[in-house]
Amino acid sequence: MVRGETGFWMGGRQAYAEAVQFVAPAPEPRSGPWPAVIRAVLDAMPGPAALLVPVRDPAGRLIDLEYVATTPGTVLGDGRLGRELIGTRMAEEFPGTAAGDRWAAYARVLETGEPTETGPFQHGEGRWRVRAHRVEGALLMTWERLDLSLEAGQRIASTERLGNLGWAEWDLVSGETRWSEQLYRIFERDPALGAMTPAQTDALVLPEDRPDRDLSLLALQRGDSVDVTFRVLLHGRVKHLRAVADVVRDTTGTPLRYFGIVQDVSALEQSAQRLADVESQLAEQGRSLAAEHALAARLQQVILPVPPEPLDLPGLKVAVRYLPASQEDLVGGDWYHAAAMSDGSVLLAVGDVAGHGTHAATTMAQLRYSLRALAVTTRDPAVLLGHLNRLLCDLSEESRNPETTATAIVARYDPVRRRLTWAQAGHPPPLLSRAGRTATLPRPSGPMLGVVENAVYEAAVLDLAFGDLLLCYTDGLVEHRRNGPDDGLASVIRSVDEAVAAAPGRPLGELLSRLRQANPDDDTCMLAVRPISDQTRDLRRYVLGR
User: Do 13-145 and 152-264 agree at the fold level?
Assistant: First the structure.
């Protein structure tokens, strides 16, 4: 949905008026605070997205969708954007919508609650993909441009809409460097002084981050696109910046210009404040505790997407399963992380924030995103846990909530040596299945996060062999109201042994199929890891049951 691209589906307002021969009924009820809450969240999101409520005819058939909340970056072909769209209907602008396959897909999402993705499809001069999720009986829709042009004018407009990004251009022929207005704000520099030279910005990078920064510059000179996160020191304060850069060459291959987009990813505190405002708004409007947890569950699904298929990472096959508590009003702060790093290693993590509700979901997001940003500063999981502990202690002090605590496991896997270096902070021990026998790993020392301000964490080393299976989990897997943790752990160990015995060639899928009963008292997050070689069989179809 981009300015200037009218006729997204077909026809216009006149065709809509001719096609609808009766006064359409009102949309489904929009009372209660949840549309305002979603509106507050969308106000802080970049890119085009909107919440639309269904409009149905007397027989209950879906005939239209009405905008009730949008991001600032959502724009219709007639120039209306953001909150100007609230109260308008999709078929009024795009009367051919109801005749297309996408309309039937949206109806299925409203009926079943299962999200859908449509596209790619052509819209104007671009190709787009649309995702739709059901939220409180409405549709949360996001649009993604698949072929966004890199022309300077479009880049400037996009940067202005995003607000938290800035761009830079370095002309290698003239030596001139240009910055967008937002980049001056990120670097806290007076625009009257002009843009910094590359040498000046490099001088701000912290010494321990310069090796990764230098490698990215070498890659850029070779003609590769780069994506690197590093820290800079500005006026005595450290900022975490993410830079995505590309190079433009002439017909002979000679570099002419470097383009870069810089994002200040240290602004997670602002996101936390926005989520706190959402929680305050719920309280002011008299929402019940159950409604608050329902919102937290939806925020949790946005913040912590669980991959439907196993992840293929360097030297590892990783499967994730998330089991929400069987009581709908108990939404926890369980989280995971699994991603390849720029040095070829793999970063793995599982964590659990104490408590339930919006506060737990907010803290979970801060820990998860902070771990990814801090991972570029050190390879040592114990050091990373130390950083997360200081972050949680600071958050507890700022929020005046001394009960903000969490547990976590952080690991780094070297696929060349098949070596896992891991540390833990008051978290249940991982389970290792080797040669048909499963046992807990001895835990290196480390207190819970957020308890001791200057806590020190130790790391342990585990060499994995082909055929091993490692299971990391949160305490909801082993702790139940009717059984003690020892009984729950023994039951899980039996399940692992039985899964490996039943399917030694595909234990991940077998294991997760057995461990899928929700704990009524707490959420559960599981991360199952298996070392692989080039000859290891693809396990996706077993986890998916196909």
Answer: yes
Q: Please say whether the dihedral angle defined by the alpha carbons of residues 287, 288, 291 and 297, taken in this order, is positive or negative.
A: positive
**Which of the listed CATH numbers 3.40.980.10, 2.30.170.40, 1.10.510.10, 3.60.40.10 matches domain 299-543?**
3.60.40.10
Among the listed residues 544, 466, 475, the one whose alpha carbon sits nearest the alpha carbon of residue 510: 544
120 prior amide bond cis, ω within 30: yes
- The answer to whether residues 380 and 347 touch, using CB atoms and an 8 Å cutoff, is no
pLDDT tens column, 16-53: 344 344 444 545 555 556 667 777 777 777 778 888 89
Q: At CA 321, angle to CA 304 and CA 110, rounded to 5?
A: 65
Q: Which of 466, 385, 462, 470 is nearest to 430 (CA)?
A: 470
360-398 pLDDT, tens per residue? 878 888 898 899 889 988 999 999 999 999 999 988 887
Mean per-residue pLDDT, 58-78: 82
Q: Can you say how many angstroms the Cα of residue 89 is from the centroid of all Cα atoms in its chain? A: 30
CB contact at 8 A, 446 and 385: yes
- Angle formed at CA 296 by CA 51 and CA 321, multiple of 5 degrees: 100
Domain ranges within the chain, ordered by starting residue: 13-145, 152-264, 299-543
Using CA atoms, how far apart are residues 404 and 401, in angstroms rounded to an integer? 6
Measured distance CA(7)–CA(11) in Å, rounded: 6
- CA geometry: angle 131, 136, 142, nearest 5 deg: 20
Q: Tell me the residue type at 190.
A: D
Separation CA 159–CA 321 (nearest Å) = 36
Greatest extent of the chain over all pairs of C-alpha atoms, in Å: 73
Nearest to 81 by CA among 13, 5, 16: 5
Q: Which pLDDT score is estimated for 317?
A: 92
Cα–Cα distance, 210 to 491 (Å, whole number): 48
Distances in whole angstroms, Cα of residue 103 to Cα of each of 17, 62, 167, 279: 19, 9, 38, 34
CATH number for the domain running over 152-264: 3.30.450.20
Q: Enter the CATH code of domain 13-145.
A: 3.30.450
239: amino acid identity, one letter: K
Segment 438-495, tens digit of pLDDT: 999 999 999 999 999 899 999 999 999 998 999 999 988 888 756 666 778 898 899 8
* Model pTM score: 0.46
pLDDT higher at 506 or 298: 506
255-265 as b/e: b if 16+ CB within 10 A: bebbbbbbbbb
The C-alpha atoms of residue 34 and residue 27 are separated, in whole angstroms, by 16
Q: Of 403, 308, 426, which Cα lies nearest the Cα of 357?
A: 403
